[in-house]
Amino acid sequence: MVSKQHLLTYLYLLVYILLSSGVILYNKWVLSPKYFNFPFPITLTMIHMGFSSLVAFFLIRVFKIVAPVKMTFEIYATCVIPISAFFASSLWFGNTAYLFISVAFIQMLKALMPVATFLMAVICGTDKLRCDVFLNMVLVSVGVVVSSYGEIHFNIVGTVYQVTGIFAEALRLVLTQVLLQKKGLTLNPITSLYYIAPCSFVFLFVPWCLLEKSEMEVSQIQFNYWIFFSNALCALALNFSIFLAIGRTSAVTMRVAGVLKDWILIALSTVIFPESTITNLNIIGYAIALCGVVMYNYLKLRDVHLSQTSVESIAERVAKDLKMEKKSSDLYVPDDLMNDSSGGKTGWNASPLDLHGDEESPLVPSSRVSHLGRNQLSIHKA
Question: Measured in whole angstroms, how far is the alpha carbon of residue 330 from the centre of its chain?
């Protein structure tokens, strides 16, 4: 019999899949000239950022549901601002792609995300070029090329926008690891929105003035407040659903849910938007790319597992050596120091990262462990 906890986990995953798919389809419907006809992606993104900033402000400053992190001007200037710039760019380019290409093809192009992230990580020095990962990246790229070749309504402008958005998002993810994690700053979805969304709004304001402001003034546009409010609310709810789902599941489960969501989204988009036609070559190419993505995820998760095993064995060895020293020298070592299971820095069972005092310690190289993997490691050792 399925327990209540498992049912709740499945519910969170279902909500995540539905909201993630719903936001993408909703954005396409709003922006598409054939449907709601609001062809202003920067404006739509700014509405999302403004709404998210407002809600995050009330949750943190007014209702005090979440405590703000210790943010200095130096961290904000060197970390939050560049991350916000690339976050705004990824949303801008990604939403603009909806004007030119179908949702199904966009999802197929998104299979390039591991390729972009790996390349950015190698360039930024947070990952090393490895033969096994490189071959997976080649496989993903070949699959995306095959899928693109089979796209009936291929549009070079939309494809360039989407691929540029993917690389901007990949650079944002790498910068988040390099800049924030090195400073020991962890942001949950609410605090992320509180600090990053207002800054992203400001970044988007400049291209909005140059590209969309004058066009909006002369064009006869529909501005239905309920449509934009519900659209922004769905985007905000998606952030919260990711937070809840990650808290209840493992990295593997979230990746499987992501793959399932992509297939559901491709199928739904062809029903909701009949002009989206999927060819056999599309499916073959996407299947090839998906095999590469699955293998890439397997390699990354294997690295995390090996790192955890290494940390455990080294910690056990340290404790064993200390016990031997205690016996041989008859020195008194307090039992609470030897058996401390709190994960604090005072006991000998503290994380080896704490023992070395260096986040870039070769025990668990940060280039091999995702942020989610780090959380799992700390939970395991707690």
Answer: 52
